[in-house]
Amino acid sequence: MAIIFSKKCEYGIQGVLYLALKGLNTVTPVEEIAAHLDIPREFISKILQGLTANKIIGSKKGKNGGFFLAKPSNKIKLYDVVVAIDGDGIFSQCVLGFPDCSGEYPCPVHDEWSKLIKDTYLMLNSQTVDHFKDKVTRKIHSIGLKKKKNAKSRSVN
Amino acid sequence: MAIIFSKKCEYGIQGVLYLALKGLNTVTPVEEIAAHLDIPREFISKILQGLTANKIIGSKKGKNGGFFLAKPSNKIKLYDVVVAIDGDGIFSQCVLGFPDCSGEYPCPVHDEWSKLIKDTYLMLNSQTVDHFKDKVTRKIHSIGLKKKKNAKSRSVN
DNA sequence: CTATAATCAGATTACATTGTCTGATTTAAA
DNA sequence: TTTAAATCAGACAATGTAATCTGATTATAG
Fold first, then answer.
1. A149 Cβ contacts chain C strand, under 7 Å
2. Which residue is nearest to nucleotide C26 (CA to C1')?
3. pLDDT given for residue A156 in this prediction
4. A37, B86: Cβ pair inside 8 Å?
5. Which domains does chain A have, with CATH numbers?
6. Chain A residues with CB inside 8 Å of B89's CB?
7. Mean pLDDT calculated for residue range B94-120
8. How far apart are CA B36 and CA B137, in angstroms?
9. In whole angstroms, how large is the CA radius of gyration of chain B?
10. A2-16, A77-91, B46-60, B85-99: which range is least confident on average?
11. Of A19-33, B30-44, B46-60, B139-153, where does mean pLDDT reach its minimum?
């Protein structure tokens, strides 16, 4: 449609934020992430696999496996995630496609854009974290009821 | 690929900026715009037609016709162009797809993003304008040489 | 008035992104 | 050691965007 991160980026960012809410080193199965964020399971799975290769998150195979945040979210830049998913091709050219856009001859959004992407860390303020932790807890619970039993997240050893 | 305005938006913005360089009420044929910006003629044509319908630019049909800026570029917001081309659907939801993103529970880029899109006017600083005016003049000249004769831009009456 | 140069409009094709499906591999628990 | 639950991997289908093509309409210049 219009202006946006690619779905892959968007989903990747959401996935990382979700893992951040769960806390460092908490292993969470894709199933839960996909259900909560309403993203096709196989799709988010692929994306998270890619982020694993880039050491932004980690994964644990086999039963009770899943993904977990590999470093604190206030150390993860939006830039890191976007580059890990889609490469840095986009950042080598002007957002508006303005020819020869540069510090000297900037397009109308030159400075603000670089700043937005490169200086933003993927962290939420504490008020927001609390709000979503509550929500996630409720949601996991309701998902749990709909399914036979269920995999709970647990700490990595 | 990654993060970006849709091509339609990007081209539309470039078109408006190009018309801005030519000055208010200067009629410029699509051919020139397409050649200079290296955009498929029919594609940019369609996009500019859309912007005409939204009164951001104007058009003049027939021989010596073309498009022209309908109001000063410092009155045209990035937001206006994007909405004219792709609708405001995108602005009704979070850029990151963060659920329930709001002023109270903001995603990591909530404030900066709104500001970037809604407060930016499609104008270039005077240094940049001078730089590109020179460039455009040279380019038009070289295009002119490659073709038999050529349509020059002229003022609307 | 006629020829020409431009916008306008719709249908169609090409391509990239998004999403789905199937199966292999790994690992923990019983 | 067997079973089940998870990641991992690749091929494929569906969708939407980008680009092209063809032709109609409009208006100016001569």
1. no
2. A62
3. 45
4. no
5. 7-127 (1.10.10.10)
6. 1-2
7. 82
8. 10
9. 18
10. B85-99
11. B139-153
